[in-house]
Design a protein that fits this description.
Blueprint (H helix, E strand, L loop, with lengths): L21 H11 L4 E4 L6 H14 L3 E6 H4 L5 H15 L8 H7 L5 H16 L4 E6 L12 H12 L10 E7 L3 H4 L12 E2 L11 H5 L8 H12 L3 H14 L6 H10 L11 H9 L2 H17 L2 E2 L4 H8 L3 E4 L2 E4 L2 H6 L2 H11 L3 H9 L11 H11 L6 H43 L6 H41 L4 H18 L13 H12 L2 E6 L5 E6 L5 E6 L4 E5 L4 E5 L6 E6 L5 E6 L4 E5 L4 E5 L6 E6 L5 E6 L4 E5 L4 E5 L6 E6 L5 E6 L3 E6 L4 E6 L6 E6 L5 E6 L3 E6 L4 E6 L5 E6 L6 E5 L4 E4 L5 E5 L6 E6 L5 E6 L3 E6 L13 E6 L5 E6 L3 E6 L4 E6 L5 E6 L5 E6 L3 E6 L4 E6 L5 E6 L6 E5 L3 E6 L6 E7 L7 E4 L5 E5 L1 E8 L5 E16 L5 E6 L3 E6 L4 E6 L5 E6 L5 E6 ...
Parallel strand pairs: 1-4, 1-5, 2-3, 3-4
Antiparallel strand pairs: 6-8, 7-8, 9-36, 10-11, 11-12, 12-13, 14-15, 15-16, 16-17, 18-19, 19-20, 20-21, 22-23, 23-24, 24-25, 26-27, 27-28, 28-29, 30-31, 31-32, 32-33, 34-35, 35-36, 37-38, 38-39, 39-40, 41-42, 42-43, 43-44, 45-46, 46-47, 47-48, 49-50, 50-51, 51-52, 52-53, 53-54, 54-55, 56-57, 57-58
Length: 1118
């Protein structure tokens, strides 16, 4: 027997895979007892199949049954015709032909209202001509709710039939059963009518293991342990009937006696589910959840809480009932849970966030507020933005989080309004005083008229100044908030965040053109946002125009042209700036792959239509490559451009010449072959398959070796390194495996949160790029170190391409955009992460001292070359410092001892300075004294040159560890770095100023040579530059290893930062004077291509055209 499971639609009463559930028995028994029943549940839960089954059982008992499928009646705007349709269905269903002439009967009662007509049909026809018990089934009841006219009377009539049993015993013969996606409260909507409050609810639950014997039968003699397999399926589906039947059929189709249920589900259902949702199931759930914009936010918010907490208490609210009808959640023991792991994987937190972002006009702000644990008030809405959000929210049912966010925003807006009001009161007071002065002066008389007029003018000028200051203060508050918002936005939308920062920066620049000092700026966050974004941004442009997912991208060998291939069946060609050149339409389905020939004069494409094609850049087809039996997933030219390789879902790869002649077919994979790559010498081909293997072949089709393990985890992409010594494969397990050409695994790239769809080596071999369904692309060193993450796409990234010089990357995504990224400043060198315990840098920045945990001290030049080493005879050194004259090196550590050497390693002195560990040490500017910082927060000054060394003074700077100490050039100020705070003590009056920015320990602090700026470095790799008043001037993020030291160079123009491994990174120090304008110029230059292709964005930053045209130094220090 060819056993087939039924995926979708109603099952016949005798279908071999029908699973009889408790609900079937409950429904049959309730109907036999004469109870009106309703089976209300989500779609594809087996309601109609249950109706068919129960109808057959009742008919077998000799009872009369008829079904009215609401979808068969249509949605005619005429109420009378609709009721006549119901009557006709009942007339035919009970086989009353020959008993009455239905057309005549209806015509005779045209003067009656539609519901009266149906009532008379039940009483005068059904109860008269149909003997015995009568069962009427109304299916797809929810379709009634979408009709343009009210059917409250229809359900009132059903209730009337039930109530009539008390007065007319004939009505006891009639029983109704309703089926659909609805709740009883949906049926009668007019509040003045009695609600639909009759009938017995039949709860339709998922399959249980004890019930699914009919499904298990299909696996007999086909798989080992059928019972275990069906149990594994139920674990994934939660017994959801449609999914259970579908997965059973998928397993039957694998022809494996020991199928991996999880792998089959992930590959054939969860991964890229949108393209595999046939018959439609998941889209139905999503549509039900999102179809009503007024309710969608509330439903998503409830579902989000269930995802976050595992379950929530069921309160029988309309919103929770509506959520249950989507099928996404299920009620168990008084709580709501996600129905099954498949739904949890598809409708995951990222999906919910994306959908909420589409609904909310303030999505970025609310996410930032949530990430701050609801404490960062800078993320809240104010002013017109808040008013717009409130206007949008009216009439909508939102999530609890939305209401909390809007309420917090209103409270903050109210507080700020009160502050503004107080400012205005002060301004009005100034205005009143000025007016009184003006009046007094005017009243002096004609003898001093001229003086009076001048005095009045001065008073009015003072009033205007006061108003200007009030207005500037308001603008400053807004600009400060705008800068902070732009910086947060950078985490998800880099290029858009730069536009936002430019807008704020330009407005700030227009205010401070008067030449005021930096400390008089009304806001500084736009500058910080611009500096941080420009120092870290990599996205250059967005290519928009495709109407579907972009599956493939390619860059021409000369770097002048970009090709994108899309689900919409087109290939688009763009110039390097992102301007559209041409759109090519040569396939009858989605285009999955595009590749340039080595000479750049042709492209090859692979399509869903089972062909690959070669065409020139004008779209003329040069050759068609037919022969694959299913979709062609990839196409690539050989290095010499004389042949091509294609791969297909049919499990083969094929080699072709340029004329379209098939040269060889590579067979051996057990599943779809998703990608193929030529080795650099063109003599071998590697293929990646969903069967879990990468196979390497010679051109004649001989299998040379196989990598991976069959039927474990699929490979989606494969790439050779430029020297041919490495092969990288993108695996379903969210990693990339890298093997040498002997098949030995060299590295695994771990870091993506979802499937990796593509991997490719840069043509220079310096880095590897990966594209993932987690919405990011990552750049890695060949040894597996993550170098950068490219964020900005809103959905899965399917492909990534790298320019020949390695300075540009292009990505393609299901968000229908391709993006261009600048990787010219990518740090690709790998550094040894040696186990060092302390580092220090000499005054001129040319030498670094490193202490290892075994007590060895080494001096390195700025390139990392070892100059000299000597033993310290100390255990656990925590800090090293050079004296300002460069002649001495001091070390402190766990035992509270201070030890000092000359540069050659000869001991100068040592002494016990503290009973607790010392974590920091620094020399005074004259090199004659030093200062230590301890684990108990004490700072102590020493005369280290006296014999013996003596303590001069001490003070407690903090309650935490003092990680570093610095002295101002004049020696009058001591800066101590602790957890999240730097405290600056003025030794003249013992006053203290604190610089606070984060909660991480601050490992380094340094004064500039002129004493006007302070640099800090924290454990998370964030370097900051401050003025002495505590204003943040700049902030830099240092990628990679922990940084241990920071120092200004002697000329004050650069900051040196030293990492644990001894690397020295330098950053330029910009003077606050003209710094803002320099940042604006850099930002405008960076966005040049983007603004040229996005005229709407250009309107936001039109002032870019007024800045100097000379190209500034970009990303200084990187």
């Amino acid at each position: 027997m060819n056993y087939q499971y039924r995926v979708g639609g109603s099952l016949a009463h005798n279908h071999p895979t029908y699973v009889e559930r408790k609900a079937d028995r409950d429904l049959l028994n309730a109907l036999k007892d004469g109870k009106f029943c309703y089976v209300f549940n989500c779609r594809q839960m087996g309601k109609s199949s249950s109706r068919v089954r129960v109808t057959h059982a009742l008919q077998e008992m000799g009872m009369a049954c008829a079904s009215v499928d609401i979808t068969s009646i249509g949605s005619d705007d005429n109420l009378s015709k609709w009721y006549n349709g119901v009557i006709t269905r009942l007339f035919l269903g009970f086989n009353l032909t020959g008993k009455i002439n239905i057309k005549t009967w209806l015509k005779d009662r045209e003067n009656l209202s539609p519901v009266q007509r149906l009532g008379q049909f039940i009483e005068e026809v059904l109860l008269v001509y149909v003997s015995g018990r009568i069962f009427i089934f109304i299916d797809e009841i929810d379709k009634i709710l979408s009709l343009k006219f009210s059917l409250d009377d229809f359900f009132s009539l059903i209730r009337y039939c039930y109530n009539q049993r008390a007065e007319n015993s004939d009505y006891e013969r009639i029983t109704f059963a309703l089926f659909g996606v609805a709740t009883p409260s949906d049926l009668i909507r007019e509040k003045t009518q009695t609600s639909f409050n009759i009938g017995e609810a039949i709860e339709l639950t998922g399959f249980t293991l004890d019930e699914v014997k009919p499904l298990e039968n299909g696996f007999q003699d086909k798989v080992n342990e059928p019972r275990k397999i069906i149990g594994d399926i139920l674990d994934w589906t939660g017994g959801q009937p449609f999914l259970t039947q579908k997965i059973c059929q998928l397993i039957l189709d694998t022809d494996s006696i020991d199928p991996d249920v999880e792998s089959i589900i992930r590959e054939n259902i969860i991964h890229n589910w949108e393209s595999k949702d046939e018959p439609v199931h998941f889209r139905t759930i999503a549509d039900r959840l999102l179809r009503n914009e007024r309710k969608a936010g509330r439903l998503l918010g409830i579902y989000q809480r269930i995802l976050e907490n595992g379950s929530i208490e069921y309160d029988d609210s309309p919103e929770q009932s509506e959520l249950r009808l989507t099928g996404l959640v299920v009620k168990k023991d008084g709580r709501l849970f996600v129905y099954n792991p498949i739904y949890r994987a598809i409708f995951n937190p990222e999906w919910v966030k994306r959908e909420l972002d589409k609904l909310r006009p303030y999505s970025k702000a609310i996410e930032a507020w949530k990430e701050s644990n609801y404490t960062d008030e800078s993320t809240l809405l104010r002013g017109q933005t808040l008013q717009n959000a409130l206007d949008w929210s009216r009439g909508k049912s939102l999530s609890d989080l939305d209401y909390q966010f809007l309420t917090a925003s209103q409270n903050l807006d109210k507080r700020e309004a009160e502050i503004h009001l107080e400012t205005e009161r002060k301004a009005n007071k100034i205005l009143a005083i000025a007016n009184r002065k003006a009046k007094r002066r005017i009243q002096i008389g004609s003898a001093v008229l001229l003086v009076s007029i001048l005095g009045a003018s001065l008073a009015l000028f003072q009033v205007q100044q006061a108003w200007d200051k009030v207005e500037e203060a308001r603008t400053g508050i807004r600009l400060q908030r705008d800068g902070d918002t732009a910086l947060r936005q950078f985490q998800v939308e880099s290029i858009e965040s730069l536009v936002s920062a430019l807008q704020a920066g330009i407005e700030l620049q227009n205010i401070v053109r008067d030449g005021r000092e930096f400390v008089e700026y009304p806001a500084t966050s736009p500058m910080i946002a611009l500096q941080q974004i420009l120092d870290n941004i990599q996205e250059k442009n967005q290519l928009e125009g495709h109407q579907g997912t972009i599956y493939s991208v390619s860059i021409s060998p000369d770097g002048k042209t970009i090709a994108t291939a899309s689900e919409d069946g087109t290939v688009k060609l763009w110039d390097r700036q992102g301007k559209l050149i041409n759109t090519l339409k040569s396939h009858q389905g989605a285009v999955y792959s595009v590749a340039f020939s080595p000479d750049g004069e042709r492209i090859a494409t692979a399509s869903e239509d089972k062909t690959a094609r070669i065409q020139d850049l004008q779209g003329r087809i040069l050759a068609t490559l037919p022969g694959h039996e299913r979709s062609v997933y990839s196409v690539n030219f050989s290095p010499d451009g004389r042949t091509l390789v294609t791969t297909s879902r049919d499990g083969t790869a094929k080699l072709w010449n340029l004329q379209g002649k098939l040269l060889h077919t590579f067979r051996g994979h057990q599943k779809s072959v998703d990608d193929a790559s030529f080795s650099p010498d063109g003599r071998t081909i590697a293929t990646a398959s969903r069967d879990g293997t990468i196979k390497v072949w010679d051109l004649a089709g001989k299998l040379l070796w196989s990598l991976g393990r069959e039927n474990i985890d699929a490979f989606y992409s494969v790439s050779f390194s430029p020297d041919g010594k490495l092969i990288a494969g993108a695996n379903k397990d969210k990693t990339v495996k890298i093997w040498d050409n002997n098949g030995k695994l060299q590295a695994s790239l771990v870091g993506h949160q979802d499937y990796i769809n593509n991997v490719t080596f840069s043509p220079t071999g310096k880095f590897i790029a990966t594209a993932s369904s987690d919405g990011t692309a990552k750049l890695w060193s060949p040894r597996g170190k993550e170098l950068a993450t490219l964020r900005g796409h809103q959905e899965s990234i399917f492909d990534v391409a790298i320019a020949q010089d390695g300075k540009r990357v292009v990505t393609g995504s299901s968000d229908r955009t391709a993006r261009i990224w600048d990787t010219g400043n990518l740090e690709t060198n790998s550094h040894n992460n040696t186990d060092n315990s302390a580092v220090g840098i000499d005054p001129i920045g040319s030498t670094v001292a490193i202490a290892t945990k075994d007590g060895q001290i080494s001096l390195l030049d700025s390139r990392g070359k070892t100059l000299h080493s000597f033993p310290s005879e100390m255990s656990s050194i925590y800090s090293l410092a050079f004296s300002p004259d460069g002649r001495a090196i001091a070390a402190v550590g766990r035992k509270g001892k201070v030890k000092i050497w000359n540069r050659q390693g000869k001991s100068r002195t040592e002494f016990l300075a503290s009973p607790v560990p010392l974590y920091s040490v620094a020399f005074t500017p004259d090199s004659r004294q030093l200062v230590t910082g301890s684990s108990d927060g004490r700072v102590q000054r020493w005369d280290w040159q006296s014999d013996p060394p003596r303590s001069i003074d001490s003070f407690r700077a903090d309650t935490n560890i003092i990680y570093d100490i610095a002295l101002s050039p004049d020696g009058k100020k001591i800066a101590s770095a602790s957890r999240g705070t730097v405290k600056i003590r003025d030794t003249a009056d013992n006053s203290v100023q604190a610089l606070t920015r984060d909660s991480f320990p601050i490992y380094g602090v340094s004064f500039s040579p002129d004493g006007r700026q302070i640099a800090t470095i924290s454990r998370d790799g964030t370097a900051r530059n401050w003025d002495t008043r505590g204003n943040l001037l700049a902030e830099y993020k240092i990628a990679g290893d922990i940084v241990f030291a920071i120092a200004f160079r002697p000329d004050g123009r650069e900051i040196s930062i030293v990492s644990r491994d001894g690397r020295v990174i330098t950053w330029p120090v910009e003077s606050p004077d003209h710094y803002l304008e320099k940042l604006l110029v850099r930002g405008c230059v960076w966005l040049k291509d983007y603004l040229a292709t996005h005229p709407d964005e250009w309107e936001k930053v039109r002032d870019c055209q007024s800045f100097p045209k000379n190209r500034p130094r970009e990303n200084g220090g990187k």
